[in-house]
Amino acid sequence: MRLPVAISTILLASLSLNAPVLSDQPIQVVQAPTSTRFNWEKLKINHRLWRGQNISNYRYEFTRSCNCLPKATAPVIIEVRNGITTSITDKETGKPADAALFQRYKTIPKLFYVIKDALVRRAANLTVEYDPVLHYPTQINIDYNNKITDDEIFITISNLEKIK
Asked: Which of 74, 69, 70, 67 is nearest to 151 (CA)?
């Protein structure tokens, strides 16, 4: 007779251990300080290595994905000579793009500044990839505030080539 009572007690006790606690507040996930430190270190190292190469004449393909004007998300070719942007052309048409839409992104040093700005502003999420040889950013994904929809920006930098 005691065995069924003991089994029932154990069964009830194990079920109560799995019961959810309704009084707990939801957990909010924030960017870990180590992730921020890691992004700062990666930025410093890659920016220093980029500068050390003294590349001042180059062109690259730039693509942005965001909740912005369609012509702001069209892939463009950005050409830089002596550190100054000389042309921004639509990759598809070869025609000049609206340079005002690309002011923040028109040189590699400006792209490093975009990353720094996201870190200073404590973006909720920042993911950056760098070219392993030339050390420029190849992918920059920023979500400034995870509670706001459509503030994210995704940037791809590709096909960078040195020019004479």
From this structure: 67
Q: Give pLDDT, residue 65.
A: 80
Q: What are phi and psi of 107, to 5 degrees?
A: -145, 160
Tens of pLDDT, residue by residue over 125-163, are 899 999 999 999 999 998 888 877 777 889 899 999 999
- The C-alpha atoms of residue 108 and residue 34 are separated, in whole angstroms, by 26
| Positions of E strands within 28-73 | 58-66
Task: For 10-152, list the strands marked E by DSSP.
Answer: 58-66, 76-81, 84-90, 125-130, 137-143
> Three-class SS of residue 27?
coil
Beta bridge partners of 84: 81
Break the chain into its structural domains and give their ranges. Answer: 31-162
